[in-house]
Description:
This protein has 461 residues and is an alpha/beta fold. Strand 7 and strand 8 form a beta hairpin. The protein folds into three domains: 37-230, Rossmann fold, CATH 3.40.50; 237-306, no CATH class; 328-459, Winged helix-like DNA-binding domain superfamily/Winged helix DNA-binding domain (Arc Repressor Mutant, subunit A), CATH 1.10.10. Helix 15 crosses helix 16. The longest helix has 25 residues, at 359-383. The chain is built from 19 helices and nine strands. The strands form three sheets. Strands 2-3-4-1-5 form a five-stranded parallel beta sheet, sandwiched between helices. A two-stranded antiparallel sheet has the order 6-9. It has a two-stranded antiparallel ribbon with strand order 7-8.
Amino acid sequence: MTVSEPEQNLELLRQRVLANLSNRTSSGLVKVRLNNLEMEQVQIYKMLENTIKFNEGKSCLVIGPRGSGKTTMVNNALLDLQERFPNMFYVIRISGFYQSDDKSAIKEIARQLDWHLLRHSGNWSVSFERFSANDTMNSVMSVLDGSQLMEGKDQNGDDDEMQMPIIFVIDELDKYTNDAKQTLLYNLFDVAQSSSNSHAVAVIGLTTVTGVREQLEKRVKSRFSQKVIQLTKPRQLAEFCDSVYCMISVDPDDFEPSMLELAQRYNSHMKTLLGGASELRKLVVRNFYTVKDLNILKSQLTPYIAKMDMTTFSAGPIPLVNTNNRSFQILASLSELELKLVICAGRQLLKNSMDQVNFNIAYEEFERISSSQTNTLNSQLQTMGRVKLDSAHHSRDLMLACWERLIYYGLLVEPIRQINGINSSFYTGGESNKMFHLDVTVEDVARLFRHTDWVTKWCRI
């Protein structure tokens, strides 16, 4: 039995919506529509366009929380440039998640340069990657400094192909600030700043760390172009709904004329659902006021669209997924002493209006609360004519071990700072004095353990 034309159209519409929801935006293979980021994308496009057309080297930082569209925005700009300037520039991508240090990053840069070289010349005999990391660095830097991109090139060949602009996209750039000398960042920013008419380099760094510029060494900061693009998540519910609509709607121009009316009806129905008292609206509002994460919405809406009746655009209730914060899941698995340390650290942050805490401060609060509770209990026992109880004492070493486990679990996050130009991760002033950020609050603990009496008492300030 053959599928009728209307059914084919309905299925094509469904597949197009599912493609939007399941799109791997980090791949950079297809353009992804973004809401309210047109101006920022134009800035990226113009900067890279000047690099390609006028050999103007630039460096730029794109800062924003996860899920704000940093990588997708850069990928969209690169795809637009590829359409206008096909095969006229190279793109080198590295990530602090996968290439976590300078050595692995420079080897990845050399590997991608080798791939571009092979793709354009078919020459297997030339390679930028060397046995040692230092030799590889020298080999790559000789190219970035303006030397020929192809060694042993054809004498009658054209130099344009050999000296095409190179665009570096560095994801999780803050990971490379952990190196004391920050050699990789210095070399890339320096080459971008000193780009000549013969060879141009642009560097785009993506990071979630707002203060990443303060983590750069002085010499690295002096080579940086100081161009920063700051992205934020939607702050108003209406803006967040617009982002969701951009995610689940389709572009009628992408369809054949016979499907134009169907695509418009679908978009109109989705806009009505987002603006009215629908299950979709409730789901979006719940997400906005809790996690504010579009990726979670994608996971929830994918099965909803997959079983939707595309003739009436109805699909019943939307399945929920577990959106618990990872830190909440860790809290539920802590021992009693570890949980008490978390509460004490949070109490000290609130009482003293601090944003960081160390073990000594938390342990002092732990001893104070434990002693206070023991004294209260003994007063009650004395009134009743009972024997007093000795206070339960937990050694400092035991509590320090609990503190170290909290660090291992990720509930305590060490801030990255610089002391005399050296990253503080290399500075040791004693484990009990080292300052940390607490990833949860006392309110979070009280809400998660609201049915546990002792937790409620410890969280009460």
